[in-house]
Amino acid sequence: MQALILAGGEGTRLRPLTSTVPKPVVQLANRPFVSFMIEWLRGHGVDDVVLSCGFLADGVRRVLGEGEDLGVRIRYVEEPTPLGTGGALRFAGELLDERFVMLNGDLLTDIDLTAQLAQHVQTGARATIALIAVEDPSAYGLVRCNPDHSVSEFLEKPSPDEIDTDLINAGAYILERSVLDEMAPPGTNISIERDVFPSLVGRGLHGFAAEGYWLDIGTPERYLQATFDILEGNVTTELGARLEDARHTLADGARVEGRLVAPVLVGEGSSVARGAIVGGRVVLGSDVTVAARAHVENSVVLDGASIGAGTHVSSSIVGPGASVGERCHIEGGVVLGERVTLGSGNV
Questions:
Q1: Which is the catalytic residue, given 62, 157, 203, 274?
Q2: How many CB atoms lie within 10 A of CB 11?
Q3: What's the pLDDT tens digit per position in 214-241?
Q4: Beta bridge partners of 342
């Protein structure tokens, strides 16, 4: 089975984490983010991945290579300019099979793709959209379906009296190659959500009501939430299984003299000094230094960063190589970019 992952966006909502690093390979729980998506896909029989890239594409290729370490084949398509979700699909057309999965590249999920494919085949659909229930669908576009799963209507930003379903587009599609035949030529800017799918209503477009974990990690807040959900096992991942086996504390190759509070993940080469507390819900990258009496909680500290003595970091993200001085207070959703230096005593 083949998958096309759309990974061409600049990730502007995640800046400054994405100012120098492509969004697909931003570290999430000490792994490139897209590797969680590929792991999930592999578990549902996908062995051929096409990555549609744009911004900082070479950085994605350097990190992921040809997929050897991920157990899949990875090929790359580089958009010359942003082409939209449909345009990216059309541009990658020469590499695509007769049937394939298409995904937005910023999803963390464990929905049952195998069941979605089974419904797609059973209904004879040309396209099947994974739908997920959300508590407040008013901020999303609703997808209305008939009893036979065929899509009847899309409703963007509905008013309260129009909400008769809580199912929204989850950004995971199973497509037949014939869908491409009706699209504009390669190089055209097209939205699959606004241009392609509405034209398929009544002509083989179906919805699959999925269950499971689903999160778009496009903002720092959601990035932290995704981190916590991996640590706590709220989403099914191989790392989560390892953490559960280790009682939610992993610190292989790290020097820990202070206290770790589960759930916590500490990267290789990192050090936690005596009197420091790290956790709960913390990820330290590789070669991170946490000095004496520092306290890090509900946060991510990325590779090579250092936290000074007596500093308190809470509900924040410290970028790679950043240096935080002594007796600082960083809290409430702060994001420090790569190699930022913060002097002592700052709040």
A1: 157
A2: 23
A3: 998 888 899 999 999 999 999 999 999 9
A4: 324
Q: Tell me the C-alpha distance between 285 and 263, whole Å.
A: 15
What pLDDT does 301 receive? 97
The whole-model pTM stands at 0.89
Known catalytic residue: 157? Answer: yes
Alpha carbons within 13 angstroms on the beta-carbon side of residue 186 total: 11
Q: Give the residue ranges of the chain where pLDDT is below 50.
A: none
Amino acid present at 31: R
Give the other-Cβ count within 10 Å of 57's Cβ: 19
Shortest CA distance to 86 belongs to which of 217, 175, 208, 205? 175
- The per-residue pLDDT for 247 is 92
pLDDT of residue 316: 96
Whole-angstrom CA distances from 307 to 18, 20, 249 are: 22, 22, 20
Identify whether the C-beta of residue 321 lies closer than 8 Å to the C-beta of residue 338.
Answer: yes
Quote the CA–CA distance of 304 and 104 in Å, as a whole number.
Answer: 30
